[in-house]
């Protein structure tokens, strides 16, 4: 006999409990709009997954305005700029002087912890470790999310709308009929070998280092934990990178006149992150709205990924508020075009930072162009202001 699903009803069904899904659920709760979040991974996995580290000025404000900024304010590191390092010297980009704004360094996994804690404290619906997730009926007015819970029991969530917040490897895009989506993609011929180390900061702010051996990034998580990256091959074998080799290579890519002081420590996490630019258009179909990595990916050189996810759902929450408030669908109909304007600006900036800073094989002319670009950006107020206004975050879509 066919199993009868356990049926639930909500206004917005959210697939994925990463920054996009959790921030959307938070913003909807603050507007009195009900949602159910479903997530394939465990709570512990989501809270320990090390990813982004930089919060744009607008992201910080949004989290604070919605009551989840207290620990971020206490533990986050407010930074007033970044360093671009090339030809053996570091050059500071002063964000307050150029934009009047700052950024905050606070791990994505910490943001996720704060969002889940708020979700639980509010008694909101959030189901971890689900499986066999399917999205149906998005071309009608009653879309449905089907899934199996940890015990294998079938569930059905009847929604008004579905938000596909399930990241690059999720299933939401596949719920859109073939032939509807246009894909724009660029895969880079390198990756990042990232580490988390128990060691002191290399510098008081982030260093983006251009070097003949390859790019390196010196970021932070706290005064005692650092996040650093080395440009590597896309298929890099982590087994070839014992700790000693990583520290030696990080030091080599810092070399120069005023070489900062790199103090090694225990490496507590290692991983290789692929680099790609990716956008699907449109970001909506029927009653399904894609947000965050489900719709777009940027190379992390611009520190945009998580911030773009937050900007998408800020647009979607406002549009859903207009719909439930007075039946106005204009903002919902314009969701994709509103988000894509900011998405493509972030894609451009992330591509530009990546192209300027990474070693491209056997391209001496290209390397000279990179050094000219870096020299111009660090000596022209107009050029450095352009970098700064993109880095601290362009205004959230109105
Ligand atoms: P996420 O991928 O964070 O979340 C999607 C969620 O959906 C996940 O929890 C997943 O388990 C869940 N899910 C997937 N399929 C599902 C299904 N079928 N049903 C239910 N749930 C499902 N960005 C930066 O700005 N700086 C960085 O340094 C940086 N480093 C990164 C390193 C790595 C290894 C990766 C993969 C990404 C990195 N990013 C970085 C980008 C990253 O931060 C993303 O932009 C950000 O996580 C986007 O958030 P979401 O859109 O919520 O997607
Ligand atoms: C990080 O801290 O993980 C980080 C910071 C800046 C980037 C990318 C990653 O551009």
Write the layout of secondary structure elements.
Layout lengths: L5 E4 L2 E4 L3 H12 L4 E4 L4 H6 L5 E2 L1 H9 L4 H6 L1 E3 L1 E6 L2 E6 H5 L3 E3 L2 H14 L3 E3 L3 E6 L7 E5 L5 E5 L2 E4 L17 E17 L7 E4 L6 E5 L4 E8 L10 H10 L13 E16 L2 E2 L2 E3 L5 E2 L7 H22 L3 H4 L1 H23 L6 H14 L3 H12 L6
Helix pairs in contact: 1-6, 1-8, 8-10
The site of arabino-flavin-adenine dinucleotide has 31 residues, from helix 1 and helix 8.
In short:
The protein is built from twelve helices and 21 strands. It has helices at residues 19-30, 43-48, 57-65, 70-75, 95-99, 108-121, 243-252, 305-326, 330-333, 335-357, 364-377, 381-392, and strands spanning 6-9, 12-15, 35-38, 54-55, 77-79, 81-86, 89-94, 103-105, 125-127, 131-136, 144-148, 154-158, 161-164, 182-198, 206-209, 216-220, 225-232, 266-281, 284-285, 288-290, 296-297. Arabino-flavin-adenine dinucleotide binds at residues 15-21, 38-41, 46, 51-53, 108, 133, 165-167, 170-171, 273, 292-293, 300, 303-306, 309.
């Amino acid at each position: 006999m066919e199993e009868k699903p356990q049926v639930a009803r909500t206004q917005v069904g959210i697939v994925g409990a990463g920054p996009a899904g959790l921030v959307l659920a938070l913003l909807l709760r603050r507007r009195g709009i009900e949602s159910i979040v479903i997530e394939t991974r465990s709570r512990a996995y989501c809270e320990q997954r090390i990813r982004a580290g930089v919060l744009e000025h607008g992201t910080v404000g949004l989290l604070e305005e919605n009551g989840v900024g207290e620990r971020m304010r206490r533990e986050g590191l407010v930074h007033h700029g970044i360093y671009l390092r090339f030809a053996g010297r570091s050059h500071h980009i002063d964000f307050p002087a150029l934009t009047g704004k700052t950024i905050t360094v606070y791990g994505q996994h910490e943001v996720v912890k704060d969002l889940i804690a708020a979700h639980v404290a509010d008694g909101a619906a959030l189901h971890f470790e689900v499986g066999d997730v399917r999205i149906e009926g998005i071309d009608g007015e009653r879309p449905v999310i089907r899934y199996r819970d940890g015990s294998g029991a079938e569930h059905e969530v009847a929604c008004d709308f579905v938000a596909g917040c399930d990241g690059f490897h999720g299933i939401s895009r596949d719920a859109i009929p073939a032939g509807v989506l246009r894909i724009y993609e660029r895969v880079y011929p390198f990756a990042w070998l990232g580490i988390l180390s128990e060691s002191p900061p290399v510098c008081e702010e982030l260093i983006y280092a251009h070097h003949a051996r390859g790019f390196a990034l010196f970021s932070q998580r706290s005064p005692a934990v650092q996040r650093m990256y080395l440009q590597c091959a896309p298929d890099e074998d982590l087994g070839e990178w014992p700790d000693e080799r990583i520290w030696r290579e990080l030091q080599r890519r810092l070399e120069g006149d005023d070489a900062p002081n790199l103090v090694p420590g225990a490496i507590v996490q290692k991983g290789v992150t692929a680099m790609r630019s990716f956008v699907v258009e449109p970001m909506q179909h029927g009653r399904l709205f894609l947000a965050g990595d489900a719709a777009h990916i940027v190379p992390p050189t611009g520190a945009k990924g998580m911030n773009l996810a937050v900007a998408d759902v800020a647009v979607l929450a406002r549009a859903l508020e207009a719909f439930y408030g007075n039946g106005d669908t204009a903002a919902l109909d314009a969701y994709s075009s509103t988000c894509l304007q900011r998405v493509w600006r972030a894609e451009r900036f992330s591509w530009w930072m990546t192209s300027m800073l990474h070693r491209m094989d056997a391209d001496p002319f290209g390397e000279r162009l990179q050094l000219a670009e870096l020299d111009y950006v660090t000596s022209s107020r107009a050029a450095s202001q352009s970098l700064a206004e993109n880095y601290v975050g362009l205004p959230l879509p109105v």
